[in-house]
Amino acid sequence: MKLQGKVAVVTGGARGIGRAIGERYAAEGARVVVADLIGADCDATAAAIGHGAIGVAVDVTKQASIEALIAKTVKVAGGIDILVNNAGVFDMGPLLEITHEGYQKIFAVNVEGLLFTMQAAARQMIAQGRGGKIINFASQAGRRGEAFVAVYCASKATVISLTQSAGLELAKHKINVNGIAPGVVDTPMWDHVDSLFAKYENLPLGEKKKQVGLAVPYGRMGTPEDMTGMALFLASADSDYIVAQTYNVDGGNWMS
Ligand SMILES: NC(=O)c1ccc[n+]([C@@H]2O[C@H](COP(=O)([O-])OP(=O)(O)OC[C@H]3O[C@@H](n4cnc5c(N)ncnc54)[C@H](O)[C@@H]3O)[C@@H](O)[C@H]2O)c1
């Protein structure tokens, strides 16, 4: 029980990687706040997780919604110890066709949403005076660029940078900010990724997913559960001396 008595907010927690992390945290004693776009989905996932988990609808692109999430968490659970900044969106397309609107859509969630949720949680953690853990979801896409994926890759490189700066700034408050860079993980997001690659690389549906899975040194795509060991480590006291790092959890795809 590494998270006994802790309160953990997981954005994008209704499905995919976020949901698996919520389940793992609850099994380790945490009270989980499932924070996602649609209230009914949050409630359903929270009910499945149990252990006092609650669902709170949030749109991390809206400052008022972020504030309401933190306020509700404090009201219902008495504070916040762990934030998993996991909400994210993916899109891709040729460089010559990138629009301001498409760019802003990705950055609004993956960068601004992550930054201002981190800021709101950090303010609350500092006010509480008992430290905290913030885990930001980057990606292997943040380690190097990729044709057709410029904006998403840039958004995740920004997450790695924000994690470094915030980690250095908040360490004195005993708030550890670290990140996870997954490789390819079989979630609803990857179904969407696969359908976009099918369009831009003229592949049959499912083919890109097969290819990326075979290319992983470990031999397969990751599962959401594969992400939870690192997410637990970074949320627990075991990682107290770890500051501003982003860890690859990718079956060997990337090496730095
Ligand atoms: N699946 C992968 O292969 C992979 C690889 C690298 C990084 N990641 C990152 O991991 C994180 C989780 O990915 P996933 O595969 O579980 O994705 P997913 O699409 O399955 O789940 C993401 C969740 O985020 C929520 N969300 C989107 N916009 C939101 C908003 N504005 N406010 C609140 N919630 C919002 C969605 O509703 C969804 O439930 C993302 O940040 C993603 O970029 C995923």
Q: Roughly how many Å apart are the termini?
A: 31 Å
Quickly give the structural class: alpha/beta
One letter per element, helices H and strands E, the order comes to: EHEHEHEHEHEHHHE
The distinct ligands, each listed once, are:
nicotinamide-adenine-dinucleotide
**Overall average pLDDT:** 98
Characterize the biggest β-sheet. 7 strands, parallel
Beta-strand fraction estimate = 5-15%
Identify the overall geometry. Answer: globular
**What is the C-alpha radius of gyration, as a whole number of Å?**
17 Å
Total DSSP E strands: 7
Unreliable runs:
none
Strand order, main sheet: write it out: 3-2-1-4-5-6-7
Helix content: 40-55%
Q: Outline of this structure?
A:
The chain has helices at residues 16-27, 39-49, 63-77, 100-128, 150-170, 188-200, 207-215, 228-235, and strands spanning 7-11, 31-36, 54-57, 82-85, 132-137, 175-182, 246-249.
Can you describe what's shown?
- The chain is of the alpha/beta class and 256 residues long.
- The protein has helices at residues 16-27, 39-49, 63-77, 100-128, 150-170, 188-200, 207-215, 228-235; strands spanning 7-11, 31-36, 54-57, 82-85, 132-137, 175-182, 246-249.
- A seven-stranded parallel β-sheet has the order 3-2-1-4-5-6-7, with helices on both faces.
- Helix 1 (16-27) packs parallel to helix 2 (39-49), helix 1 crosses helix 8 and helix 4 (100-128) packs parallel to helix 5 (150-170).
- It is globular and about 50 Å long.
- The model has no long low-confidence stretch (mean pLDDT 98).
- The site of nicotinamide-adenine-dinucleotide has 28 residues, from helix 1, helix 4 and helix 6.
- Residues 11-12, 14-18, 36-37, 58-61, 86-89, 109, 113, 137, 139, 182, 184-185, 187-190 line the site of nicotinamide-adenine-dinucleotide.
